[in-house]
Design a protein that fits this description.
- This protein has 322 residues and is of the alpha/beta class.
- It has 2 domains: 120 residues, NAD(P)-binding Rossmann-like Domain (Rossmann fold, 3-Layer(aba) Sandwich); 181 residues, 3-Layer(aba) Sandwich (Rossmann fold), CATH 3.40.50.720.
- The protein is built from 11 helices and 12 strands.
- The strands form 2 sheets. It has a 7-stranded parallel β-sheet with strand order 8-7-6-9-10-11-12, with helices on both faces. Strands 2-1-3-4-5 form a 5-stranded parallel β-sheet.
- The two termini are 26 Å apart.
Length: 322
């Protein structure tokens, strides 16, 4: 069996092992193979003759899948999101496609709180200030260059109460926060009070986005939504970049409509050079790393190997359908 990994670097830059896959077939790992239709020729060249393809963000559109059929039998998406595969074309070509749900729940929720803590405690800002000599030259025993805010007693609004949303709610509650939630929530939950969208916008001191990207949630946070939030509110996004209208958010931060934002995902990734958010005040940006703890990536790799082993055994799991 020929197994080809088309973009293995982000999952495994060298600190994990492909050994389990090597036990199932001949494995070829490419660090990157391109992320657009313009790279189709290279993708086809590398994928030619593969029985199994493992991908993270490498696109497999209809034309590519037709060119690889009938040899290609299995695509393992090394992520939860799978919009990079044309599922209709895969099913018609008899290709099984699987993904990895739930592997990053703890890591992503932890990162959401890390962004929030940076916005409320400004540890990075004060670390840089100390190292720049501000403390050694300070006439007082301490100083702070930005307001420090306690989370206890504040209200956390969770948008999307799936696995990650629920874990974020638990972490927020551990800080003494009241937790409210809306959009794609269980009919009953013990981790949050359910409320309307307008109530969540108006009552939350922090809003953390954990909903999927759909036609209904595209630019969910726009100028209108931002105008309904508290001026001292903070916005966190570790879900999908296009949930936010980035131009509207940048304007809101410049105008003081809300107090700050912490974002791990952008509408275009890598971030566009002309994106307005890096120049917006009190906006913390990280490069889509909430999922990428060593433990989370190892869990993902193990689950991907389990998926392939199950497929080989004739009992495929986590199968995606159009």
């Amino acid at each position: 069996m020929k197994i080809v990994v088309l973009d293995g670097h982000t999952l495994n830059p060298g600190d994990l092992s492909w050994t389990r896959f090597e036990a199932m077939g001949a494995v070829t790992v490419y660090e990157r193979s391109g992320y657009s239709a313009a790279d189709r020729a290279l993708i086809l060249q590398r994928a030619q003759g593969a029985d199994v393809l493992l991908i993270n963000k490498t696109p497999l559109d209809r034309a590519t899948l037709l060119a690889l059929s009938p040899k290609l039998k299995y695509i393992g998406v090394l992520a939860t999101g799978y919009n990079i595969v044309d599922l209709d074309a895969a099913v018609r070509a008899g290709i099984t496609v699987t993904n990895i749900p739930g592997y990053g729940t703890r890591a992503v929720a932890q990162h959401a709180l890390a962004l929030l803590l940076e916005l409320t405690n400004h540890c990075g800002l004060h670390d840089r200030a100390v190292k720049a000599g501000q403390w050694s030259s300070c006439p007082d025993f301490c100083f702070w260059d930005a307001p420090l805010t306690e989370l206890d007693g504040k209200t956390m609004g969770i948008v999307g109460l799936g696995r990650i949303g629920q874990q974020t709610a638990r972490l927020a509650a551990a800080f003494g926060m009241r937790v409210i939630a809306c959009h794609h929530v269980p009919q009953s939950t013990r981790v949050a009070e359910l409320c309307s969208w307008d109530t969540l916008l108006s009552q939350s001191d922090v809003i953390s986005l954990h909903c999927p990207l759909t036609a209904a949630t595209y630019h969910l946070i726009d100028r209108q939504a931002l105008s309904k939030m508290k001026r001292q509110a903070l916005l966190i996004n570790t879900s999908r970049g296009p949930l936010i209208n980035e131009a509207d958010l940048a304007t809101a931060l410049h105008q003081g409509v809300i107090a700050g934002a912490g974002l791990d995902v952008m509408a275009e990734e890598p971030i566009a050079a002309d994106n307005p958010l890096p120049n917006a005040p009190n906006c913390i940006l990280t490069p889509h790393i909430a999922w990428a703890s060593l433990e989370s990536r190892q869990r993902l790799l193990n689950m991907a190997a389990d998926n392939l082993a199950a497929f080989i055994a004739g009992q495929p799991q986590h199968v995606l359908t159009p």
